[in-house]
Write a structure and sequence with these properties.
It is built from eleven helices and 15 strands. With 350 residues, the chain is an alpha/beta fold. It is elongated, with a radius of gyration of 30 Å.
């Protein structure tokens, strides 16, 4: 009896072993894991500037690259050799074909870029402008370097202080089609209507097209055409540096006052030698940084470009989207004045 029981148990064990050997292997059960935070997607963001070789936009690129590193994005930095709308349109068409995620443009012509801006948006690409805006129909949002009215008025205030509120002045701008330049000039004219400027006369507006040699030659033309000229406003980093060099070469530093918008690193020598007492600018590194953050936030669906929306822009803090008519925009911040007291410090920054 005992032997039969042992035999039965052995037989049962053999059957169980055979069944186990024939059964499919069990799927291992993964250990329970806490839900992980969704990783941010890396986007391809194109920055299209007015022209390559412009120190202002090289600084913009530095800021955009800084933001992209923080956000895990890729910046494609491009621009035409000369500041033309045609060159920018060709570049944007190529970027649309490459299927980039976003395009940010500093426009050489606000209206000429509208069709290609619409084309980009129709292709599902986020389309924004910065520095110099595309007309609202051709983009979703604009990033302004500072309040346009303040920028225009402060340049008149600076030149007036330097010439004692009396004498002839001229403006040496970039290109006649550039949105930002034209808006600033209109606010300069508005500021000049104040009775305190009654002894000042705006005698000429000339255009150097943001080209160094052309700006230099236009400055020389002003010296010759207006022998009683007391001051020049150049609201462009290329133009103000070229004008300062022209003043230096003509031996007119201090005789004709100069102000406008310039890069501290380029203007330091002219501040020290008396060719430019004071000028202003915002930080182009911060402008590029903010532009990259805006593009990323829009791509991530965190903002849509509607007035009143707020968002964080890294080290720059919180921003709110504003509206004026059909124009939605973001303002980087107020312009800063540079002079002999602070130029050495800021020339090391940008």
């Amino acid at each position: 009896m005992k032997h039969r029981m042992i035999f039965a148990l052995l037989a049962m064990a053999t059957v169980v072993a055979l069944l186990a050997a024939c059964a499919p292997p069990a799927t291992p059960v993964a250990p329970q894991q806490a839900p992980a935070e969704k990783a941010a997607k890396g986007y391809k963001i194109a920055i299209v500037v007015k022209n390559l070789g412009n120190p202002f936009f090289e600084a913009v690129n530095r800021g955009a690259q800084e933001a992209a590193k923080e956000l895990g994005d890729e910046i494609i930095f491009q621009g035409p050799a000369t500041p033309t709308a045609e060159g920018q349109i060709e570049i944007i068409d190529a970027l649309i074909a490459q299927k980039v995620d976003a395009i940010a443009v500093s426009a050489n012509d606000p209206d000429a870029l509208v069709p290609v801006g619409k084309k980009a948006m129709d292709a599902g690409i986020v389309m924004i402008s910065f520095d110099s805006g595309i007309a609202p129909a051709g983009r979703q949002l604009h990033i302004s370097q500072a309040d346009m009215e303040t920028i225009g008025r402060v340049q008149v205030q600076m030149i007036a202080e330097q010439i004692g509120y009396e004498g002839q002045i001229a403006i040496l701008s970039a290109a006649s089609t550039m949105t930002n330049q034209n808006t600033w000039i209109e606010w300069m004219k508005e500021e000049l209507k104040d009775p305190k400027y009654s002894k000042m006369e705006l005698v000429a507006i000339v255009y150097g097209d943001d080209l160094r040699e052309k700006s230099y030659n236009e400055a020389q033309g002003l010296f010759k055409s207006y022998p009683d000229l007391k001051g020049i406003i150049s609201p462009t980093t290329v133009g103000i540096a070229a004008t300062a060099r022209a003043l230096q070469d003509a031996g007119l530093c201090g005789k004709i006052k100069l102000t406008g918008l310039g890069l501290p690193s380029e203007m330091a020598e002219y501040v020290k030698n008396g060719c430019c007492e004071e000028f202003a600018l915002w930080n182009p590194v911060d402008l590029g940084y903010l532009t990259a953050y805006v593009a990323h936030r829009m791509l991530a669906g965190e903002i849509t470009g509607k007035a009143g929306e707020t968002f964080e822009a890294g080290r720059l803090g919180e921003y709110t989207i504003q509206v004026d008519g059909d124009d939605v925009y973001i303002v980087l911040g107020p312009p800063f004045r540079f002079n002999a007291e602070n130029i050495d410090e800021w020339a090391k920054v940008y």
